[in-house]
Recover the amino acids of this structure.
């Protein structure tokens, strides 16, 4: 966690000057990133403390993020199997950095790869991108509660506020164009883009961002969360886990509550109930992506589309028919969302291990195929003749409302993704989801389904991140950071 400010009045003076420095030691580079960031944050917080007391005399208070840059005359990498950790061609590349208290291990790894792959130093300095006061205050500060209405109105006169013009996703969308004479991007996300997502994660999930783990499960049913709480509390008592964290008890239920089965190195499992619909799925993955998780999975229920499926069978997505429309502008429908071998193998092996079925017999409980994702919760009410024709032509085996969005955003943000759904109804074949049947089904299947998901995540954790973050998710001119 970020240390609390000391509120030293003398620190309301502008921070000392940091001249750019070069490093070939990632730990020393990270230490300077931390020093720059913490010094500038302390300056903002101390100034803000005086502002709250009506004692701020400075007309304008500004502080800036640290940056990292690298200049290389050769685009090379020591290991051709790697999908990240190197720049695509000779030149200068740069990005702003934030929250080293959260990203310390991540930054150290990425910096080390740059140095190793190019055999040149990295440069650390102070950028010209201002830190908005809202981001300096952190996720737990509430302006309306802690300031008067007049002070809230006066804030932009004294402090920098968020600028949406520099928080877009052009780099991630591969639509960013470097201006002549400007450095290329080192990361998919700039510091302000990361900071706004950290704020949103607290708002939507009720959890501080440092609790989130590198393996994330999304679900659309509270039943799964209830089971995860039970399992997580038990696992948290074991030596290889560091605890189980639930949403803050702030008196307001978060919209998409997150629960964290933690490990010291961040390789635990976070589970989030995203609710229903592709809009929620996009919202949460837009923000979780800045944490650079190693994998995310969708576990939920679906409508089985084949007469041969039984209630309780599993559907492993190897393709997506995206009729949710939520990401059409960012990931056009002409772009395929491929199945990722590492994720598929882990999920299939986990199903076999938990159900006791294997080989050809696994087909009795699981079907692999295309999952259709819709933005219409009442899709069953459309003309069955027209609807069945399109679904049949696509070879779809299941219908849901979130999986296609989560997979497409995983593809877009280079986060390994996968989907394992459980058939809860078969509306095209007369088996509608009715209250009594649904409740009975949920009780019987949720525990097994969640055990499969948790086991799959453990199998993925046993792989190295280098194997998970494969070249399949990288475009032509990729940012170096994973």
């Amino acid at each position: 966690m970020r240390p609390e400010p000391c509120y030293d009045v003398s620190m309301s003076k502008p921070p000392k000057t940091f001249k750019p420095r070069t490093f070939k030691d990632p730990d020393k580079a990270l230490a300077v990133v931390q020093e720059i960031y913490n010094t500038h944050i302390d300056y903002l917080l101390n100034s803000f403390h005086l502002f709250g007391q009506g004692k701020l005399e400075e007309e304008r208070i500004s502080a800036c993020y640290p940056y990292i840059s690298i200049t290389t005359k050769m685009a090379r990498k020591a290991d051709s199997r790697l999908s990240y950790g190197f720049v695509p061609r000779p030149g200068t590349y740069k990005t702003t950095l934030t929250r080293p208290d959260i990203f310390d291990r991540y930054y150290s790894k990425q910096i080390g790869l740059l140095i190793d792959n190019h055999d040149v130093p990295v440069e650390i300095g102070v950028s010209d991108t201002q830190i908005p006061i809202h981001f300096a205050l952190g996720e737990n500060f509430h302006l309306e509660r802690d300031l008067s209405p007049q002070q809230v109105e006066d804030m932009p006169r004294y402090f920098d506020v968020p600028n949406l013009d520099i928080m877009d996703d052009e780099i991630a969308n591969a639509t960013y164009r470097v201006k002549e004479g400007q450095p290329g991007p080192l990361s998919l996300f700039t510091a302000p883009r990361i900071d706004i997502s950290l704020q949103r994660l607290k708002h939507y999930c009720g959890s501080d961002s440092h609790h989130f783990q590198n393996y994330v499960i999304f679900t659309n049913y509270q039943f799964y969360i209830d089971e995860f709480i039970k399992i997580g509390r038990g696992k948290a008592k074991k030596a290889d886990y560091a605890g189980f964290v639930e949403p803050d008890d702030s008196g307001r239920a978060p919209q998409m509550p997150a629960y964290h089965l933690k490990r010291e190195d961040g390789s635990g499992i976070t589970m989030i109930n995203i609710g229903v619909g592709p809009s929620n799925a996009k919202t949460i993955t837009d923000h979780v992506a800045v944490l650079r998780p190693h994998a995310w999975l969708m576990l939920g229920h679906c409508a089985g589309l084949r007469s041969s499926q039984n209630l309780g069978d599993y559907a492993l997505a190897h393709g997506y028919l995206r009729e949710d429309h939520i990401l059409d502008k960012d990931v056009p429908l002409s772009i395929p969302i491929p199945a990722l071998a590492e994720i598929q193998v882990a999920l299939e092996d986990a199903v076999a291990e938990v159900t006791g079925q294997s080989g050809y017999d696994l087909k009795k409980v699981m079907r692999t195929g295309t999952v259709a994702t819709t933005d219409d919760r009442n899709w069953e009410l459309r003309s069955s003749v027209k609807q069945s024709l399109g679904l049949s032509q696509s070879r779809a085996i299941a219908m849901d409302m979130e999986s296609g969005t989560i997979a497409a955003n995983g593809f877009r943000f280079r986060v390994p993704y996968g989907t394992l759904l459980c058939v809860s109804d078969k509306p095209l074949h007369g088996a509608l989801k009715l209250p009594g049947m649904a409740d009975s089904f949920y009780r019987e299947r949720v525990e097994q389904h969640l055990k499969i998901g948790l086991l799959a995540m453990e199998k993925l954790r046993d792989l190295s991140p280098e194997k998970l973050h494969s070249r399949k998710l990288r475009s032509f001119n990729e940012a170096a950071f994973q």
In short: The longest helix spans residues 435-462. The chain has two domains: 9-198, 207-473. The first strand starts at residue 21 and ends at 23.
